[in-house]
TrEMBL record:
Its main location: membrane. The gene is FAT3. Residues 7-130, 137-240, 241-298 form the Cadherin domain. It is found in: Membrane. This is Protocadherin Fat 3. Keywords: Calcium, Membrane, Repeat, Transmembrane, Transmembrane helix. The keyword Signal does not apply. One of its GO terms (biological process) is homophilic cell adhesion via plasma membrane adhesion molecules. One of its GO terms (cellular component) is plasma membrane. One of its GO terms (molecular function) is calcium ion binding.
Length: 305
């Protein structure tokens, strides 16, 4: 069993203490090459937590940090399950195990481990405010970015305001670990996000990418979780299922005798992936092709009739 491609030994997320129970924070992924694998995610002991002064909590601490988060056994989604409080627990580290419950008796204990570190952020009216629809209790933004743009292309910007000065924030940082494949760069002053690598809609399983950005004003900061929805563009050519098609045909075959059907697929979605067929080359006048089905038939050539 392996943790995901891309392999992730650990996950880091900033979480507002205002987030309500039920809110999903991060999804731990794992893959198992066995077809009959049945993966189960669990939070393992010991869960570590520290208060805002760095003092470690114990299970007898008044604040129930063990009940602050839970994981969905089948999806690996980590979500809020109890009240969060920056003063009580500013960081909580969850060891997560994934186990193949269908492991064959000959190969038991198919387990892997990862770690989710959650920084609980204090809510303050003085912290920078990102542009809507971001809110302190739902610090998320969604953007759309077309696939296959050149490296270095600026694809969107984040913008935050300092509520004390009323001025735009002039300092941004990508949160370490929030973009494990290093797909994006964040302009330190401008908040402009540009591409470090290729976004390929066809190759992306989730059709999304993500990153987290901090807006910093003095000793105050806020964070935005950004979901990048990758948009399909028409970048794939159709490909025939065969390089050559062969068939035999009686010399007296006449319209509408079906000869054969060719087929091609195009990896793009929607109309960008719709395939039309046509005939060309020597002998093309002797046949017709259905432009949507690819069925080739003999054609009644007028002077042979
Ligand atoms: Ca593509
Ligand atoms: Ca495409
Ligand atoms: Ca296409």
């Amino acid at each position: 069993m392996m943790l995901p491609p891309p392999h992730q030994d650990s996950y880091v997320q900033y979480v507002s203490e205002r987030l309500p129970a039920g809110e999903e924070i991060v999804r731990v992924r794992a893959t198992d090459p066995d077809q009959d694998a049945s993966l189960q995610f669990t939070i393992r002991e010991p869960v570590l937590a520290r208060d805002k002064t760095g003092v470690a909590l114990t299970p007898s601490s008044p604040y129930n940090y063990l009940g602050a988060f839970r994981i969905n056994e089948t999806s690996g989604a980590v979500s809020v399950s109890g009240p969060l409080n920056h003063n009580e627990a500013a960081v909580i580290i969850l060891p997560i195990a994934v186990e193949d419950k269908n492991a064959s008796a000959a190969f038991p204990d198919q387990t892997d481990l990862t770690e989710v570190t959650l920084y609980i952020q204090a809510f303050s009216d003085k912290n920078p405010i990102f542009a809507p629809p971001w809110t302190p209790s739902r610090p998320q933004l969604q953007v759309k970015v077309k696939e296959e743009q050149e490296q270095g292309t600026k694809v969107f910007s984040v913008m935050a305001k300092d509520p004390i000065s009323g001025q735009p924030v002039r300092r941004y940082e990508k949160v370490a670990g929030s973009d494990p494949d290093n797909m994006f760069s964040v302009g330190a002053i401008t908040g402009e996000v540009s591409l470090n690598s290729r976004l390929d809609y066809e190759a992306s399983e989730t059709k999304t990418a993500s990153l987290q950005v901090l807006a910093i004003a003095g000793d105050r900061s806020s964070q935005a979780s950004i979901i990048v929805n990758i948009e399909d563009v028409n970048d794939n050519s159709p490909i025939f299922t065969e390089n050559e098609y062969h068939t035999r045909l009686a010399e007296d075959a006449r319209f509408p005798k079906s000869v054969l059907t060719v087929s091609a697929t195009d990896a793009d979605t929607g109309v960008r992936g719709e395939v039309r067929y046509s005939l060309g080359g020597e002998g093309a006048l002797l046949f017709v092709i259905n432009e949507t089905t690819g069925e080739v038939r003999t054609w009644l050539v007028p002077h042979y009739a």
